[in-house]
Amino acid sequence: MASIGFIGLGIMGTPMARHLQDAGHRIITSKFVIPPRQELVDHGLEFVETPKALAETVDTIILMLPDTPEVKDVLFGENGVYYGLGEGKLVIDMSSISPIETKEFARKVRETGADYIDAPVSGGEVGAKNASLSIMAGGTPESFQRALPLFNLMGKNITLVGDCGDGQVTKVANQIIVALTIEAVSEALVFASKAGADPARVREALMGGFASSRILEVHGERMIKRTFEPGFRISLHQKDLNLALQGAKSLGISLPNTAATQELFNNCAANGDSGLDHSGLVRALERMANHEVA
User: Fold this and answer.
1) Fewest CB atoms less than 10 Å from the CB: which of 41, 92, 138, 168?
2) Do the bridges between strand 121-122 and strand 133-138 make them parallel or antiparallel, or are there none, so unpaired?
3) Is residue 10 part of a domain?
4) Bridge-partner residues for 28, per DSSP?
5) Which of 138, 133, 109 is nearest to 121 (CA)?
6) Residues tagged active-site
7) Taking a C-beta distance cutoff of 8 angstroms, is the pair 101, 73 a contact?
8) Do 122 and 199 sit in the same domain of this protein?
């Protein structure tokens, strides 16, 4: 089994790294702000001083970080991963970040003789824990085949979309669909509840028809039961929609419903809800309606 570097052991990274440990891989980390969870340490998590030292120690480095600046810092900051790379190394960035910046990161990493894959994921904390993540990869076919055994330990729907950056483009498209579907479910449940119907029974009925979706199933239930503990925080979805809107501007296209949904997330953030699960978007509509779903 391999020694694998893993930087970013948070809500998503911890269960992903645990699956690798369970398969017998040696996991090594560096540069954490929040100490890793004890379960990783108990299963043999090792440490080195810097990301550079980590890149010098292992052949494969996985990143699972919150945003573009954090990835840039870990890769190219002082004692960053970049400075320990060389021929035969592989960087797998599973964060959700800017497609434009990703292409530049990949170009610089490849100059060292190493290779780079962007492989953002969908499925949230539940998918990470169940090893059922959808993984959208961008890179060469050769690097994808090299990473595939690791991806198979963390996910189920694994697709090589294209070259570097295309994985991030796919993730942004995914986040547009997820956000707008959460908004649609929120509107429907606020409408039904305000009209006097039982939202739980409305949801049950809708689950048997063409309106059925994974978001209606999971996040509709969260809205009704008021369980907004974060699987995926509103603040992170705001970040993803910012990437979508910035990309749309550079492409000269309009994403009007994405922009409107971002305003609802902004309303949540302005009211102190940015740390809630993104299903908490319903709270913005509830404030506008002066009525809670349940």
Assistant:
1) 41
2) antiparallel
3) yes
4) 5, 46
5) 133
6) 171
7) no
8) no
Per-residue CA distances from 59 to 90, 91, 92 (Å): 6, 8, 11
Task: Tell me which residue has tokens 């089994």.
Answer: 1
CB atoms within 10 A of CB 197: 13
Q: Rounded to an integer, what is the distance from CA 32 to the centroid of its chain? A: 18
Q: pLDDT tens, position by position, for the chain (294 residues)?
A: 899 999 999 989 999 999 999 999 999 999 666 678 889 999 999 999 999 999 999 999 999 999 999 999 999 999 999 999 999 999 999 999 999 999 999 999 999 999 999 999 999 888 999 999 999 999 999 999 999 999 999 999 999 999 999 999 999 999 999 999 999 999 999 999 999 999 999 999 999 999 999 999 999 999 999 999 998 999 999 999 999 999 999 999 999 999 999 999 999 999 999 999 999 999 999 999 999 999
Distance, CA of 232 to CA of 43 (rounded, Å): 26
Among 111, 141, 162, the domain boundary falls at 162
CATH of the domain at 28: 3.40.50.720
Taking the C-alpha atoms of residue 165 and residue 19, their distance in angstroms, rounded to an integer, is 26
Is residue 177 included in any domain, yes or no? yes
Nearest of 41, 88, 89, 36 to residue 61 by alpha carbon: 89
- Domain end position, chosen among 162, 194, 226: 162
Q: How far apart are CA 241 and CA 179, in angstroms?
A: 8
The DSSP string of 161-185 is EESTTHHHHHHHHHHHHHHHHHHHH
Which residue range is the domain that position 77 belongs to?
3-162
| The CA-based dihedral angle spanning residues 229, 120, 31, 236, taken in that order and rounded to the nearest 10 degrees | -40
The three-class DSSP label of residue 244 is helix
Question: Considering its fold, how many domains does the chain have in total?
Answer: 2
Cα–Cα distance measured from residue 114 to residue 91, given in angstroms and rounded to the nearest whole number: 8
